[in-house]
Specification:
heterodimer; A: mainly alpha; MetI-like fold; 2 domains; two-stranded antiparallel ribbon; 14 helices; 2 strands; globular; disordered C terminus; B: alpha+beta; D-Maltodextrin-Binding Protein, domain 2; Dipeptide-binding Protein, domain 1; 3 domains; six-stranded mixed beta sheet; four-stranded mixed beta sheet; 16 helices; 22 strands; 20% strand; disordered N terminus; ABC transporter permease (chain A); transmembrane helix (chain A); MetI-like_sf (chain A); transmembrane (chain A); transport (chain A)
Chain lengths: 330, 536
């Protein structure tokens, strides 16, 4: 994996300025938003006198200038200290580590669903472009893609939880159930079915369309003509020659989708009351908790950078033509 | 005097409540109640600080009131509208300089230590008076608390302080903390603020952030045979539609504070396992108000303010914005506060022609194709109803030839614009009536309040006569005289319109029919729930 290591190194170095811009941008945006963490907190209090606000500002360090707060934040970040959350009144690292796994499970499962089902259906649609099956699949997937995530989630809840009562409406696991081991894993899996479906189904269309479009192009290639001339069965041509070659761009798409899915999980996590990363971001903004929001964005950025790195490595491995030039450092 | 109209929906709703009360002797006869059981209720937020002695807000009380108790709780039929909790009696001196509380005997903290007057003295001086958002105002003149014996606490004030005010403030202000856990620590940052220890019917067991709070039965609770439940769970459900679904699926048994949107109530009430309850919010009345910036030369003109008041169809607001779950307001004190409510005040019936005529008189004639004048309207984002009222007022003002530009902010943005930067002309706000006008009502019109004090008069209104009444009522010990002062206050406020009260509303709870004793006190949702049970 010598090539992969060089690629990794290049990517990590390149990601440092990206992270710096992300941090500065987030800080500026939060500064520009009217009101600070104390204002947000006083809303939940139902008011309070000016003296109270002043005391709180001092204790949160919000009475200092923006520049000195940014400097404090960056210097503690350099020591890998994410700081203290104002909204949760706990170390940010604890809050982040508590929420991240839920979102990773949700995103991972939803991506797997969208990718496998999407590319499978894409192969079926692309096997006979223009056929009735193709039309139905295309229209169906586009409809799903056009549906807002929260609405799909609510409809699934109404059907499967309220009407049929097959699955729980929300949450990540049964409350205070005392379950451990396999029973607990199954319990969490049961709770994830609907959120994964609502998040996954929306992105499924993308993979389906891309697979189908890719296959459409490959059909016109000379080697397909050659395969046909050899007298291979249509099934064999579809699977071994057409689909296989159309699959590569989907891997790229997988990396790009990681970021979009993080965004989509904000909505899905709220609807299904899953204590995840997306909901945390929303709570951080509502509470004007700048350090928490920055931590969330930094971790998300690192996550996206990592996923894309993995995709690149996978790509270089799958298709030597593409990865070669960059990995060789030319 | 004109009796405010009761909307048809409001009427239907109150009949429904009556019908509910007829069916409800569920709490009278304790029909086959199951001993124990787990009650799961929805919570829409997780307060940063779960200590009601510091943060006296409904969001905190909703959870913490089950763990930490006040000296007295609001009551429908108790003397002075109170039911004793940690205090069994309260007596004021004639000069208004002291109040003596007799405390309940044999009460222990959840950690086994005895509850004494030292806890009350500590809480009052170090927490309510110094740190609490409401207590800092109400108890500003509290000098010392003497503890002649373990079960007596004597509050000493530097200025005459009406017992009536102290009584009315008790349910909100007087959550007692265990001195032995707080003394000598940084009270605001004490770990017990997030894992509270109290004397209440339920003991804090665990908090899984983003998921739930779990409280368990306090085996040593002082109430006879209470609490009835074994376990109480607050499940965090941030999405309102999600809470409705969880109720319908039977996963939770109660959602309070109108967490189920009003528009879903019709569908919900068709479900025979659930009922919509409006009782239990009487002492938590919210007031929909139009706040006015009197720095604006146009709005400074009383005729213009009167015109705006006449342009608002309160019946429409109650029926459409609140779907009938509200009452038309006549002035700064809601009807739900019968002790203070004065119906004989200046009224502004919906009258477009009169509004137009007033604007003509004020010197803002109608212009061809243009507006008489234009203003910026900032609806508070706290409730869907305040936002909807913003949309309505814009249209209502257009009818009388006033152009309103809607400016939307999120909560911190709105607070800054209205209460700190004064960057508004009209704002749709939500005020809370907390049992006594002196707690959070008079400050909506009083002058001289520092900039940046949220939910107070930041419209630059100053009326020396009203200020005088407010100041006098604050030190008037005689209850009857004090009530008369507030009657005068209501008359003057409605005559001079420093702000416009549009509607008063309580919230709704959606509850499983199996839950008994729901809404049996005026602050039920934020009270201890010692007698709440689940039917077998």
């Amino acid at each position: 994996m010598h090539r992969a290591w060089r690629l990794t190194k290049r990517r990590l170095v390149a990601s440092i300025p990206v992270l710096a811009i992300v941090i500065l941008g987030t800080f500026l945006l939060m500064e520009l938003a009217p009101g600070d963490a104390v204002d947000a907190y006083l809303v939940s209090l139902g008011g309070g006198d000016a003296g109270l606000a002043e005391t709180l500002r001092q204790s949160y360090g919000l009475d200092q200038s923006a520049i000195s707060r940014l400097w404090l934040y960056v210097s503690s970040l350099a020591r890998l200290d994410l700081g203290w959350s104002i909204v949760f009144n706990r170390p940010i690292l604890d809050v982040v580590l508590e929420r991240l796994p839920n979102t990773l499970w949700l995103m991972g499962a939803a991506t797997a669903l969208a990718f496998t089902l999407g590319s499978l259906l894409g192969i079926i649609a692309g096997a006979r472009p223009g056929s009735a099956v193709d039309r139905v699949l295309s229209i169906g997937s586009l409809t799903l893609y056009a549906v807002p995530g929260f609405w799909l989630g609510l409809v699934l809840i109404l059907v499967f939880s309220v009407q049929l009562r097959w699955l729980p409406t929300s949450g990540i696991e049964t409350i205070a159930s005392g379950k451990t081991g396999i029973a607990r894993v199954l319990d969490i899996a049961r709770h994830l079915v609907l959120p994964v479906a609502s998040l996954g189904f929306i992105y499924l269309a993308l993979f389906l369309r891309m697979m189908r479009a890719g296959m459409g192009e490959v059909w016109r290639q000379d080697f397909v003509l050659a395969a046909k001339a050899k007298g291979l069965s249509r099934r064999r041509i579809v699977i071994h020659h057409v689909a296989r070659n159309a699959l590569l761009p989907l891997v790229t798409m997988l990396g790009l989708q990681a970021a979009t899915m993080l965004g989509g999980s904000v909505v899905i996590e709220s609807v299904f009351a899953i204590p995840g990363f997306g909901r945390l971001a929303q709570e951080a903004v509502a509470g004007r908790d700048a350090p928490l929001l920055m931590a969330i964005i930094i971790v998300s950025a690192v996550l996206v950078i990592l996923v894309n790195l993995l995709v690149d490595i996978a790509y270089a491995w799958l298709d030597p033509r593409v990865g070669g030039s960059e990995a060789a450092g030319r | 005097m004109s009796i405010p109209e009761i909307s048809r929906r409001g009427l239907m709703q109150s009949t429904a409540v009556l019908a509910g009360a007829a069916v409800l002797p569920r709490w009278g006869f304790a029909q086959d109640a199951m001993q124990g059981g787990r009650l799961v209720v929805a919570a829409d937020s997780e307060p940063r600080n779960l200590n009601p002695a510091i943060v006296a807000s409904n969001g905190v009380f909703y959870i913490a009131s089950k763990i930490i108790e006040p000296l007295a709780e609001a009551s429908f039929d108790g003397p002075d509208g109170l039911a004793p909790r940690l205090a069994t009696s309260w007596q004021g001196s004639d000069d208004g300089l002291s109040v003596t509380f007799k405390l309940r005997e044999g009460v222990t903290w959840h950690d086994g230590k005895p509850f004494t007057s030292a806890d009350v003295a500590f809480s009052a001086m170090e927490v309510w008076k110094s740190l609490q958002n409401i207590g800092r105002t109400v108890l500003a003149n509290l000098e010392t608390v003497d503890t002649p014996d373990e079960l007596t606490a004597v509050f000493k004030f530097s200025e005459p302080t009406p017992l009536q005010l102290i009584r009315n403030a008790l349910p909100v202000v007087s959550s007692v903390l265990p001195r032995h856990l707080y003394e000598g620590t940084d009270i605001a940052e004490n770990p017990a603020n997030n894992e509270p220890v109290g004397t209440g019917p339920f003991v804090f067991a665990e908090h899984r952030p983003g998921e739930y709070y779990r409280l368990t039965r306090n085996e040593a609770y002082w109430g006879d045979g209470e609490p009835k439940l074994d376990e109480l769970i607050f499940r965090v459900l941030p999405d309102r539609a999600g809470a409705a679904a969880a109720l319908e699926a039977g996963e939770i048994q109660l959602a309070a504070f109108s967490q189920v949107p009003l528009s879903d109530l019709e569908r919900i009430s068709a479900n025979s396992e659930l009922e919509v309850v409006t009782k239990g919010y009487e002492a938590l009345t919210y007031q929909l108000i139009v706040e006015i910036n009197h720095r604006n030369e146009v709005l400074k003109n009383l005729k213009v303010r009167q015109a705006i008041a006449h342009a608002i169809d309160k019946t429409f607001v109650v029926d459409t914005v609140f779907l009938g779950y509200a009452a038309e307001a006549t002035g700064p004190v809601p009807k739900n506060a019968p002790e203070f409510y004065e119906p004989d005040v200046t009224q502004y019936p919906f009258d477009v022609e009169k509004a137009k005529a007033l604007l003509d008189e004020a010197g803002y004639p109608a212009k061809d194709g243009g507006a008489r004048f234009s203003i910026r309207l900032l609806p508070a984002p706290f409730f869907s109803e305040t936002r909807a009222m913003g949309d309505y007022l814009k249209q209502a003002l257009a009818v009388i030839g006033v152009e309103a530009e809607l400016v939307s902010n999120d909560a911190p943005g709105h607070l800054n614009a209205v209460y700190k930067d004064h960057d508004f002309d009209l704002s749709i706000g939500a005020a809370v009536f907390r049992g006594d006008p002196a707690i959070s009502t008079t400050n909506l019109v009083q002058s001289g309040i520092p900039d940046g004090t949220f939910f107070s008069n930041q419209g630059g209104y100053a009326n020396p006569e009203i200020d005088k009444i407010i100041a006098e009522a604050l030190v008037t010990v005689d209850t009857q005289k004090r009530i008369e002062l507030y009657d005068e206050f209501q008359k003057r406020v409605t005559a001079d319109l420093p702000l416009i009260n549009v509607a008063d509303w309580g919230f709704t709870s959606v509850v499983s029919v199996d839950v008994l004793n729901v809404g049996n006190n005026p602050r039920w949702v934020v009270s201890g729930w010692a007698d709440t049970e689940i039917a077998a």
